[in-house]
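Let us work through a complete example step by step.
Step 1: write down the sequence.
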Amino acid sequence: MTDPTARTAPESGAGVLELLHRFKNDPAAADRYAADCLEKTKAAEPVLKAFEYLPVDVTRRPGPLSGIPVAIKDIIATSDMPTTNGSPIYRDHIPAKDAWVVERLRSLGATIFGKTVSTEFAWRHPGPTVNPWNHAHTPGGSSSGSAAAVAAGLVPLALGTQTLGSVIRPAAFNGVVGLKPSFGAIPRTGVHPLSPSLDHVGLFARRLDDVAYALSLLAASSDLDPHGRPLPGFQIDPDRGVPPLQNPRLAIVRFEKWSKAEPEQQRTFEAAIVKLRDAGAVAQELELAELDSTNWHAINIILASEAALIFSDLVARYPDRTSDHLKSAVQAGKGHTAYDYLAARALQEKLRSRLPTDLSGFDAVLTLPAFGEAPKGLGYTGDAEYCAPWTLLGAPAVALPAGFGNNGLPLGVQIVGSYRQDYHLLRVAKWVEGALRFDPGLPRL
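Step 2: predict the structure and record it as C-alpha coordinates.
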Protein backbone atom coordinates (compact mmCIF):
# COMPACT_ATOMS: atom_id res chain seq x y z
CA MET A 1 0.00 0.00 0.00
CA THR A 2 1.16 3.53 -0.76
CA ASP A 3 2.52 5.55 2.15
CA PRO A 4 -0.28 8.16 2.40
CA THR A 5 2.19 10.86 3.49
CA ALA A 6 4.61 10.24 0.62
CA ARG A 7 4.36 12.40 -2.46
CA THR A 8 6.66 13.73 -5.09
CA ALA A 9 7.62 17.36 -5.58
CA PRO A 10 4.79 19.70 -6.63
CA GLU A 11 6.47 20.45 -9.97
CA SER A 12 5.93 16.82 -11.04
CA GLY A 13 3.12 16.12 -13.49
CA ALA A 14 3.12 18.58 -16.36
CA GLY A 15 -0.19 20.04 -17.50
CA VAL A 16 -1.62 20.26 -21.01
CA LEU A 17 -0.59 23.85 -21.76
CA GLU A 18 2.86 23.30 -20.29
CA LEU A 19 3.29 20.25 -22.51
CA LEU A 20 2.09 22.07 -25.63
CA HIS A 21 4.63 24.82 -24.99
CA ARG A 22 7.35 22.20 -24.51
CA PHE A 23 6.34 20.34 -27.66
CA LYS A 24 6.44 23.54 -29.72
CA ASN A 25 10.11 23.92 -28.84
CA ASP A 26 10.96 20.22 -28.94
CA PRO A 27 8.98 18.16 -31.49
CA ALA A 28 11.01 15.08 -30.59
CA ALA A 29 9.66 15.29 -27.03
CA ALA A 30 6.13 15.39 -28.42
CA ASP A 31 6.81 12.26 -30.45
CA ARG A 32 8.00 10.41 -27.32
CA TYR A 33 5.55 11.67 -24.74
CA ALA A 34 2.56 9.37 -25.30
CA ALA A 35 4.84 6.33 -25.55
CA ASP A 36 6.46 7.33 -22.26
CA CYS A 37 3.01 7.68 -20.69
CA LEU A 38 2.08 4.24 -21.95
CA GLU A 39 5.20 2.68 -20.45
CA LYS A 40 4.53 4.39 -17.11
CA THR A 41 0.89 3.32 -17.18
CA LYS A 42 1.73 -0.33 -17.83
CA ALA A 43 4.03 -0.26 -14.82
CA ALA A 44 1.38 1.32 -12.58
CA GLU A 45 -1.65 -0.68 -13.71
CA PRO A 46 -1.10 -3.85 -11.64
CA VAL A 47 -1.68 -1.68 -8.56
CA LEU A 48 -3.77 1.28 -9.71
CA LYS A 49 -6.19 -0.57 -12.03
CA ALA A 50 -7.38 2.66 -13.65
CA PHE A 51 -7.74 1.32 -17.20
CA GLU A 52 -10.02 -1.19 -18.88
CA TYR A 53 -8.04 -0.97 -22.11
CA LEU A 54 -4.79 0.65 -23.23
CA PRO A 55 -4.05 1.98 -26.72
CA VAL A 56 -2.06 0.10 -29.32
CA ASP A 57 -1.21 3.10 -31.50
CA VAL A 58 0.08 6.28 -29.84
CA THR A 59 1.44 7.88 -33.00
CA ARG A 60 1.26 11.67 -32.83
CA ARG A 61 -1.18 13.42 -35.15
CA PRO A 62 -1.35 17.12 -36.11
CA GLY A 63 -3.70 19.57 -34.41
CA PRO A 64 -3.97 21.93 -31.42
CA LEU A 65 -3.83 18.93 -29.03
CA SER A 66 -1.08 17.11 -30.93
CA GLY A 67 0.94 14.89 -28.61
CA ILE A 68 -1.54 15.09 -25.70
CA PRO A 69 -2.78 11.70 -24.43
CA VAL A 70 -6.44 11.84 -23.35
CA ALA A 71 -7.96 8.98 -21.36
CA ILE A 72 -11.61 8.18 -22.12
CA LYS A 73 -14.16 7.00 -19.57
CA ASP A 74 -15.44 3.59 -20.57
CA ILE A 75 -19.06 4.60 -21.15
CA ILE A 76 -17.89 6.81 -24.06
CA ALA A 77 -17.81 5.01 -27.41
CA THR A 78 -14.53 4.32 -29.20
CA SER A 79 -14.54 2.58 -32.59
CA ASP A 80 -11.06 1.07 -32.20
CA MET A 81 -11.25 -0.08 -28.57
CA PRO A 82 -13.82 -1.97 -26.49
CA THR A 83 -16.43 0.10 -24.67
CA THR A 84 -17.63 -2.05 -21.78
CA ASN A 85 -19.79 0.53 -19.94
CA GLY A 86 -18.41 -1.04 -16.77
CA SER A 87 -20.60 -4.09 -17.39
CA PRO A 88 -19.85 -7.74 -18.20
CA ILE A 89 -22.71 -7.56 -20.71
CA TYR A 90 -20.54 -5.32 -22.92
CA ARG A 91 -17.20 -6.96 -22.15
CA ASP A 92 -16.21 -7.42 -25.81
CA HIS A 93 -18.32 -4.65 -27.35
CA ILE A 94 -16.59 -2.44 -29.94
CA PRO A 95 -18.90 0.35 -31.16
CA ALA A 96 -19.36 0.99 -34.87
CA LYS A 97 -18.31 4.63 -34.47
CA ASP A 98 -16.71 7.03 -32.04
CA ALA A 99 -18.69 9.19 -29.66
CA TRP A 100 -18.93 12.80 -30.83
CA VAL A 101 -16.40 13.96 -28.24
CA VAL A 102 -13.89 11.24 -29.17
CA GLU A 103 -14.19 12.05 -32.86
CA ARG A 104 -13.64 15.71 -31.99
CA LEU A 105 -10.54 14.92 -29.93
CA ARG A 106 -9.08 12.89 -32.78
CA SER A 107 -9.67 15.82 -35.16
CA LEU A 108 -7.82 18.07 -32.72
CA GLY A 109 -4.78 15.78 -32.84
CA ALA A 110 -5.17 14.26 -29.38
CA THR A 111 -3.96 10.72 -28.71
CA ILE A 112 -6.90 8.60 -27.52
CA PHE A 113 -5.17 6.95 -24.60
CA GLY A 114 -7.30 3.94 -23.74
CA LYS A 115 -10.47 3.47 -21.71
CA THR A 116 -10.67 4.20 -18.00
CA VAL A 117 -12.65 2.23 -15.43
CA SER A 118 -16.22 3.36 -14.80
CA THR A 119 -18.75 2.11 -12.33
CA GLU A 120 -21.42 -0.03 -14.02
CA PHE A 121 -23.21 2.26 -16.52
CA ALA A 122 -21.84 5.21 -14.49
CA TRP A 123 -23.99 4.20 -11.52
CA ARG A 124 -22.90 2.91 -8.13
CA HIS A 125 -21.45 -0.56 -8.64
CA PRO A 126 -17.65 0.09 -8.51
CA GLY A 127 -14.74 -1.24 -10.51
CA PRO A 128 -11.29 -2.23 -9.20
CA THR A 129 -9.54 1.17 -9.34
CA VAL A 130 -7.82 2.31 -6.14
CA ASN A 131 -7.04 5.80 -4.90
CA PRO A 132 -3.42 6.56 -5.89
CA TRP A 133 -2.82 8.40 -2.61
CA ASN A 134 -3.84 5.44 -0.45
CA HIS A 135 -4.71 2.15 -2.09
CA ALA A 136 -7.05 1.14 0.73
CA HIS A 137 -9.43 3.97 -0.27
CA THR A 138 -11.82 4.53 -3.18
CA PRO A 139 -10.94 7.00 -5.95
CA GLY A 140 -14.63 7.93 -6.02
CA GLY A 141 -16.99 7.35 -8.90
CA SER A 142 -18.33 6.97 -11.35
CA SER A 143 -15.36 8.42 -13.26
CA SER A 144 -12.98 6.37 -11.10
CA GLY A 145 -10.24 5.52 -13.58
CA SER A 146 -10.13 8.95 -15.23
CA ALA A 147 -9.59 10.80 -11.95
CA ALA A 148 -7.01 8.28 -10.69
CA ALA A 149 -5.07 8.28 -13.98
CA VAL A 150 -4.68 12.07 -13.96
CA ALA A 151 -3.85 12.12 -10.25
CA ALA A 152 -1.11 9.50 -10.76
CA GLY A 153 0.43 11.53 -13.59
CA LEU A 154 -0.29 8.86 -16.20
CA VAL A 155 -2.16 11.27 -18.50
CA PRO A 156 -2.54 15.06 -18.40
CA LEU A 157 -6.21 15.05 -19.46
CA ALA A 158 -9.15 12.66 -19.15
CA LEU A 159 -12.85 12.59 -19.94
CA GLY A 160 -15.46 11.75 -17.33
CA THR A 161 -19.21 12.12 -16.93
CA GLN A 162 -21.43 13.38 -14.12
CA THR A 163 -25.07 12.59 -13.40
CA LEU A 164 -24.92 13.21 -9.64
CA GLY A 165 -21.32 13.90 -8.58
CA SER A 166 -19.10 11.76 -10.78
CA VAL A 167 -16.58 14.40 -11.90
CA ILE A 168 -16.42 16.87 -9.02
CA ARG A 169 -16.28 14.31 -6.19
CA PRO A 170 -13.54 12.04 -7.64
CA ALA A 171 -11.55 15.15 -8.62
CA ALA A 172 -11.61 16.21 -4.98
CA PHE A 173 -10.82 12.70 -3.71
CA ASN A 174 -7.78 12.44 -6.01
CA GLY A 175 -6.39 15.98 -5.74
CA VAL A 176 -6.93 17.08 -9.34
CA VAL A 177 -8.93 19.75 -11.13
CA GLY A 178 -12.38 18.64 -12.25
CA LEU A 179 -14.70 20.59 -14.56
CA LYS A 180 -18.38 19.81 -15.01
CA PRO A 181 -19.44 22.28 -17.71
CA SER A 182 -22.97 23.57 -18.06
CA PHE A 183 -25.56 20.96 -19.01
CA GLY A 184 -25.47 20.43 -22.76
CA ALA A 185 -22.12 22.15 -23.30
CA ILE A 186 -20.36 19.05 -24.72
CA PRO A 187 -22.47 16.75 -26.91
CA ARG A 188 -23.21 13.34 -25.39
CA THR A 189 -23.80 11.53 -28.68
CA GLY A 190 -22.17 8.12 -28.25
CA VAL A 191 -22.05 8.37 -24.44
CA HIS A 192 -24.14 5.65 -22.77
CA PRO A 193 -27.01 7.43 -21.00
CA LEU A 194 -27.94 7.06 -17.35
CA SER A 195 -30.35 10.00 -17.06
CA PRO A 196 -30.48 12.21 -20.16
CA SER A 197 -31.88 15.20 -18.25
CA LEU A 198 -28.85 15.13 -15.94
CA ASP A 199 -25.91 13.54 -17.80
CA HIS A 200 -22.89 15.81 -18.38
CA VAL A 201 -19.52 15.18 -20.07
CA GLY A 202 -16.69 16.58 -17.93
CA LEU A 203 -12.92 16.86 -17.71
CA PHE A 204 -10.03 16.08 -15.38
CA ALA A 205 -6.59 17.72 -15.50
CA ARG A 206 -3.91 19.07 -13.20
CA ARG A 207 -4.44 22.79 -13.86
CA LEU A 208 -7.46 25.04 -14.30
CA ASP A 209 -6.03 26.35 -17.58
CA ASP A 210 -5.98 22.82 -18.97
CA VAL A 211 -9.68 22.03 -18.47
CA ALA A 212 -10.57 25.53 -19.70
CA TYR A 213 -8.56 25.09 -22.89
CA ALA A 214 -10.09 21.67 -23.48
CA LEU A 215 -13.61 23.02 -23.00
CA SER A 216 -12.94 25.86 -25.42
CA LEU A 217 -12.15 23.22 -28.05
CA LEU A 218 -14.91 20.73 -27.19
CA ALA A 219 -17.93 22.94 -26.44
CA ALA A 220 -20.39 22.57 -29.32
CA SER A 221 -23.76 21.11 -30.23
CA SER A 222 -24.85 17.98 -32.06
CA ASP A 223 -28.13 17.34 -33.85
CA LEU A 224 -28.15 13.90 -32.23
CA ASP A 225 -28.08 15.31 -28.67
CA PRO A 226 -31.47 16.95 -28.09
CA HIS A 227 -30.33 18.51 -24.80
CA GLY A 228 -27.33 20.27 -26.32
CA ARG A 229 -27.08 24.03 -26.10
CA PRO A 230 -23.89 25.72 -27.29
CA LEU A 231 -22.10 27.96 -24.82
CA PRO A 232 -21.40 31.60 -25.61
CA GLY A 233 -18.15 31.33 -27.56
CA PHE A 234 -14.80 31.90 -25.87
CA GLN A 235 -11.18 31.24 -26.70
CA ILE A 236 -8.21 30.40 -24.48
CA ASP A 237 -4.74 31.50 -25.52
CA PRO A 238 -2.60 28.38 -24.88
CA ASP A 239 0.40 30.59 -24.14
CA ARG A 240 -1.40 32.68 -21.51
CA GLY A 241 -4.24 30.55 -20.21
CA VAL A 242 -7.36 31.98 -18.60
CA PRO A 243 -7.24 35.64 -17.50
CA PRO A 244 -8.20 35.54 -13.79
CA LEU A 245 -11.13 37.63 -12.61
CA GLN A 246 -9.56 39.85 -9.99
CA ASN A 247 -11.08 40.16 -6.51
CA PRO A 248 -14.24 38.13 -7.20
CA ARG A 249 -17.35 38.25 -5.05
CA LEU A 250 -17.95 34.75 -3.69
CA ALA A 251 -21.14 33.40 -2.14
CA ILE A 252 -20.24 30.94 0.62
CA VAL A 253 -22.89 28.20 0.49
CA ARG A 254 -22.71 25.60 3.26
CA PHE A 255 -26.21 24.03 3.18
CA GLU A 256 -27.74 22.34 6.23
CA LYS A 257 -25.58 19.27 5.60
CA TRP A 258 -22.45 21.25 6.63
CA SER A 259 -22.51 19.59 10.06
CA LYS A 260 -21.96 16.19 8.38
CA ALA A 261 -18.67 17.28 6.81
CA GLU A 262 -15.50 15.85 8.35
CA PRO A 263 -13.74 18.30 10.70
CA GLU A 264 -10.62 18.40 8.51
CA GLN A 265 -12.74 19.23 5.45
CA GLN A 266 -14.40 22.03 7.40
CA ARG A 267 -11.01 23.38 8.50
CA THR A 268 -9.67 23.21 4.94
CA PHE A 269 -12.70 25.13 3.68
CA GLU A 270 -12.41 27.79 6.39
CA ALA A 271 -8.68 28.18 5.70
CA ALA A 272 -9.47 28.63 2.00
CA ILE A 273 -11.94 31.40 2.81
CA VAL A 274 -9.29 33.21 4.86
CA LYS A 275 -6.74 32.92 2.04
CA LEU A 276 -9.20 34.18 -0.54
CA ARG A 277 -10.26 37.15 1.57
CA ASP A 278 -6.64 38.00 2.30
CA ALA A 279 -5.96 37.93 -1.45
CA GLY A 280 -8.78 40.40 -2.14
CA ALA A 281 -11.97 38.38 -2.62
CA VAL A 282 -15.26 39.42 -1.07
CA ALA A 283 -16.73 36.27 0.48
CA GLN A 284 -20.16 36.39 2.11
CA GLU A 285 -22.48 33.70 3.44
CA LEU A 286 -25.52 32.90 1.29
CA GLU A 287 -28.45 30.58 1.98
CA LEU A 288 -30.29 28.91 -0.88
CA ALA A 289 -33.06 27.42 1.20
CA GLU A 290 -35.34 25.97 -1.48
CA LEU A 291 -32.46 24.45 -3.45
CA ASP A 292 -31.07 22.99 -0.22
CA SER A 293 -34.32 21.38 0.86
CA THR A 294 -35.58 20.07 -2.48
CA ASN A 295 -32.63 19.18 -4.72
CA TRP A 296 -31.80 15.69 -3.44
CA HIS A 297 -35.38 14.45 -3.68
CA ALA A 298 -35.90 15.96 -7.12
CA ILE A 299 -32.67 14.77 -8.69
CA ASN A 300 -33.20 11.22 -7.49
CA ILE A 301 -36.74 11.11 -8.91
CA ILE A 302 -35.48 12.32 -12.30
CA LEU A 303 -32.49 9.97 -12.33
CA ALA A 304 -34.37 6.85 -11.24
CA SER A 305 -37.31 7.48 -13.58
CA GLU A 306 -35.11 7.93 -16.63
CA ALA A 307 -32.77 5.10 -15.65
CA ALA A 308 -35.77 2.76 -15.30
CA LEU A 309 -36.80 3.50 -18.87
CA ILE A 310 -33.26 2.91 -20.14
CA PHE A 311 -32.33 -0.19 -18.12
CA SER A 312 -35.50 -2.09 -17.22
CA ASP A 313 -35.28 -4.41 -20.23
CA LEU A 314 -31.56 -4.94 -19.63
CA VAL A 315 -31.91 -6.04 -16.01
CA ALA A 316 -34.81 -8.32 -17.01
CA ARG A 317 -32.72 -9.97 -19.74
CA TYR A 318 -29.50 -10.22 -17.72
CA PRO A 319 -30.40 -10.61 -14.03
CA ASP A 320 -27.14 -12.47 -13.37
CA ARG A 321 -24.99 -9.80 -15.07
CA THR A 322 -26.45 -6.61 -13.61
CA SER A 323 -25.78 -5.33 -10.12
CA ASP A 324 -28.16 -4.84 -7.23
CA HIS A 325 -27.43 -1.11 -7.50
CA LEU A 326 -28.79 -0.99 -11.06
CA LYS A 327 -31.76 -3.19 -10.20
CA SER A 328 -32.60 -0.90 -7.26
CA ALA A 329 -32.46 2.19 -9.48
CA VAL A 330 -34.85 0.56 -11.96
CA GLN A 331 -37.22 -0.51 -9.19
CA ALA A 332 -37.21 2.97 -7.66
CA GLY A 333 -37.86 4.58 -11.01
CA LYS A 334 -40.82 2.35 -11.74
CA GLY A 335 -42.30 3.39 -8.41
CA HIS A 336 -42.49 7.07 -9.34
CA THR A 337 -45.61 8.40 -11.00
CA ALA A 338 -45.62 10.58 -14.10
CA TYR A 339 -46.74 13.42 -11.84
CA ASP A 340 -43.71 12.91 -9.56
CA TYR A 341 -41.36 13.02 -12.55
CA LEU A 342 -42.93 16.04 -14.22
CA ALA A 343 -43.02 17.95 -10.90
CA ALA A 344 -39.32 17.24 -10.37
CA ARG A 345 -38.51 18.42 -13.90
CA ALA A 346 -40.57 21.58 -13.39
CA LEU A 347 -38.70 22.30 -10.16
CA GLN A 348 -35.40 21.73 -11.97
CA GLU A 349 -36.28 24.35 -14.58
CA LYS A 350 -37.59 26.79 -11.98
CA LEU A 351 -34.46 26.62 -9.83
CA ARG A 352 -32.15 26.77 -12.87
CA SER A 353 -33.89 29.89 -14.18
CA ARG A 354 -33.78 31.52 -10.74
CA LEU A 355 -30.10 30.90 -10.05
CA PRO A 356 -28.83 34.14 -11.69
CA THR A 357 -31.21 36.11 -9.46
CA ASP A 358 -30.17 34.11 -6.39
CA LEU A 359 -26.52 34.89 -7.18
CA SER A 360 -27.10 38.54 -8.02
CA GLY A 361 -24.11 40.52 -6.79
CA PHE A 362 -21.86 37.44 -6.72
CA ASP A 363 -19.48 36.05 -9.33
CA ALA A 364 -19.65 32.44 -8.15
CA VAL A 365 -20.51 30.09 -5.30
CA LEU A 366 -17.83 28.66 -3.02
CA THR A 367 -18.87 25.38 -1.43
CA LEU A 368 -17.68 21.84 -0.66
CA PRO A 369 -17.16 19.16 -3.31
CA ALA A 370 -17.58 16.30 -0.83
CA PHE A 371 -17.90 15.63 2.89
CA GLY A 372 -14.20 14.89 3.35
CA GLU A 373 -11.54 12.41 2.30
CA ALA A 374 -12.26 9.47 0.02
CA PRO A 375 -13.95 6.69 2.05
CA LYS A 376 -11.97 3.62 3.02
CA GLY A 377 -12.61 0.51 0.96
CA LEU A 378 -13.62 0.12 -2.67
CA GLY A 379 -17.28 -0.81 -2.25
CA TYR A 380 -18.59 2.73 -1.70
CA THR A 381 -17.55 5.63 -3.94
CA GLY A 382 -18.70 8.46 -1.67
CA ASP A 383 -21.63 10.80 -1.07
CA ALA A 384 -22.72 13.11 -3.91
CA GLU A 385 -24.99 15.43 -1.89
CA TYR A 386 -22.73 18.48 -2.28
CA CYS A 387 -22.58 17.97 -6.06
CA ALA A 388 -26.24 17.15 -6.69
CA PRO A 389 -27.69 20.70 -6.44
CA TRP A 390 -25.47 22.00 -9.21
CA THR A 391 -25.94 18.91 -11.39
CA LEU A 392 -29.70 19.29 -11.07
CA LEU A 393 -29.43 22.90 -12.24
CA GLY A 394 -26.91 22.11 -14.96
CA ALA A 395 -24.69 24.86 -13.54
CA PRO A 396 -20.96 24.76 -14.35
CA ALA A 397 -18.75 23.62 -11.48
CA VAL A 398 -15.04 23.29 -10.81
CA ALA A 399 -13.26 21.24 -8.14
CA LEU A 400 -9.84 22.51 -7.03
CA PRO A 401 -7.43 20.74 -4.65
CA ALA A 402 -7.00 22.66 -1.40
CA GLY A 403 -5.29 20.44 1.17
CA PHE A 404 -4.85 17.00 2.70
CA GLY A 405 -6.81 15.22 5.39
CA ASN A 406 -5.71 13.14 8.35
CA ASN A 407 -5.22 10.03 6.19
CA GLY A 408 -3.01 11.82 3.68
CA LEU A 409 -5.81 11.96 1.12
CA PRO A 410 -6.67 15.12 -0.82
CA LEU A 411 -9.39 17.60 0.09
CA GLY A 412 -10.84 20.23 -2.21
CA VAL A 413 -13.21 23.13 -2.72
CA GLN A 414 -15.93 23.58 -5.33
CA ILE A 415 -16.67 26.75 -7.27
CA VAL A 416 -20.00 27.04 -9.10
CA GLY A 417 -21.32 29.55 -11.63
CA SER A 418 -24.64 30.33 -13.28
CA TYR A 419 -25.92 28.16 -16.12
CA ARG A 420 -24.02 28.74 -19.40
CA GLN A 421 -21.68 31.25 -17.75
CA ASP A 422 -18.78 28.80 -17.98
CA TYR A 423 -16.13 31.26 -19.09
CA HIS A 424 -16.92 33.63 -16.23
CA LEU A 425 -16.72 30.71 -13.79
CA LEU A 426 -13.37 29.63 -15.25
CA ARG A 427 -11.97 33.13 -14.74
CA VAL A 428 -13.11 33.06 -11.10
CA ALA A 429 -11.67 29.57 -10.59
CA LYS A 430 -8.35 30.64 -12.12
CA TRP A 431 -8.11 33.45 -9.58
CA VAL A 432 -9.04 31.09 -6.74
CA GLU A 433 -6.42 28.58 -7.87
CA GLY A 434 -3.77 31.31 -7.82
CA ALA A 435 -4.85 32.62 -4.43
CA LEU A 436 -4.87 29.17 -2.81
CA ARG A 437 -1.46 28.34 -4.29
CA PHE A 438 -1.86 24.65 -3.53
CA ASP A 439 -0.38 21.91 -5.68
CA PRO A 440 -0.62 18.38 -4.23
CA GLY A 441 2.09 17.02 -6.53
CA LEU A 442 1.99 13.36 -7.46
CA PRO A 443 1.49 10.35 -5.18
CA ARG A 444 4.25 7.75 -5.07
CA LEU A 445 2.73 4.61 -6.50
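Step 3: interpret the result. The first strand starts at residue 51 and ends at 53.
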